[in-house]
């Protein structure tokens, strides 16, 4: 087995097998060093890429969406974006910027790209799904098809986001390292992903709503997600959890469970913001440019 992308460990404990796409059986393991859960062995690149080219975004399954390209879904996703940014105190950071640039990795149909454009940002996205990229381009959104790790950008970003993306990656460590390179000094990273550990996910066992194989490859808890990011040049500012997986729609049971999930840090989704630390070369550059003021967000620990 390859080393753990968080801690570099090579000892894993088998958890269970579960049927995934194409009735294929996949095996989930847990890293002995940091408790990251991940599929072993990973599916091939072609197998993973194939997951997002068919009806994944148009046909409701345990692993896909129900008409992701509909106006109803777009409005709901934008509502969640607004809530997430508010919970992360994003406005405080946004107010310090002029003509900012943002990149959304795994942007799907480009909804966050469009949302940030409406907020006055120079926004763009990158996505592997051809149907999603085609949809985004038809809506005049700056979205490209490609592998982020193989893509060079002509400028640095003030904000890079991965909304429910990192769990789809074979090598999240490489993504975080490249994001550090692609951000401006002090730039912000926002990550959301499904969450293991002490959360409502414990109630469901193998039937947890995010155990979707092979689309989801890695399952983080709060501690190892922070470790992955902080050990690669970032200071974590704030973390929030939300979601319970209990109930449906707007029923009372769901509302109560979701309230407790967010209020007591028990959600099976985690939302995190982090700021790129200055490296000596960047600090020297800022000093040469005569920039005396530099905004550093105060870490907010949960």
Question: Could you outline the blueprint of secondary structure elements for this entry?
Answer:
Blueprint: E1 12-19, E2 25-31, E3 37-39, H1 45-51, H2 71-87, H3 90-94, E4 101-105, H4 111-118, E5 122-127, H5 130-138, E6 143-145, E7 157-163, H6 172-182, E8 183-194, E9 218-219, H7 222-230, E10 234-242, H8 252-263, E11 269-276, H9 280-288
Overall description:
This protein is an alpha/beta fold and 302 residues long. It has one domain (71-288): Rossmann fold, CATH 3.40.50.150. The chain is 29% helix and 23% strand. The protein contains nine helices and eleven strands. It has a seven-stranded mixed β-sheet with strand order 6-5-4-7-8-11-10, with helices on both faces. The chain has a four-stranded antiparallel β-sheet with strand order 1-2-3-9, with no helix packed on it. The radius of gyration is 19 Å and the shape is globular.
């Amino acid at each position: 087995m390859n080393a753990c992308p968080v801690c570099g460990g090579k000892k894993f404990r088998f958890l269970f097998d579960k049927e995934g796409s194409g009735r294929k059986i996949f095996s989930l393991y847990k890293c002995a060093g940091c408790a990251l859960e991940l599929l072993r062995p990973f599916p091939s690149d072609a197998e993973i890429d194939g997951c997002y080219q068919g009806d994944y975004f148009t046909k409701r399954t345990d692993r896909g969406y129900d008409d992701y390209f509909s106006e109803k879904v777009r409005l709901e996703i934008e509502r969640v974006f607004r809530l997430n940014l508010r919970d992360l105190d994003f406005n405080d950071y946004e107010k310090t910027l002029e003509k900012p640039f943002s990149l959304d990795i795994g942007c799907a149909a480009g909804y966050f790209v469009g949302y940030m454009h409406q907020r006055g940002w120079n926004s763009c996205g990158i996505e592997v799904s051809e149907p999603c990229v085609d949809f985004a381009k038809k809506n005049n959104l700056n979205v490209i098809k490609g592998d982020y790790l193989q893509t060079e950008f002509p400028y640095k970003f003030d904000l890079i986001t991965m909304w429910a993306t990192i769990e789809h990656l074979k090598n999240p460590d490489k993504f975080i390292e490249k994001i550090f390179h692609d951000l401006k000094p002090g730039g912000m990273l926002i990550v959301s992903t499904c969450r293991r550990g002490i959360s409502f996910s414990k109630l469901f066992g193998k039937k947890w709503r995010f155990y979707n194989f092979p689309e989801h490859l890695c399952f983080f808890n709060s501690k190892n997600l922070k470790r992955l990011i902080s050990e690669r040049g970032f200071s974590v500012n704030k973390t929030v959890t939300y979601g319970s997986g209990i109930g449906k729609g707007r029923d009372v049971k769901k509302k109560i469970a979701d309230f407790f999930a967010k209020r007591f840090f028990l959600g099976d989704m985690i939302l995190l913001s982090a700021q790129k630390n200055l490296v000596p070369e960047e600090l020297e550059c800022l000093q040469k440019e005569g920039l005396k003021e530099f905004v550093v967000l105060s870490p907010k620990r949960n």
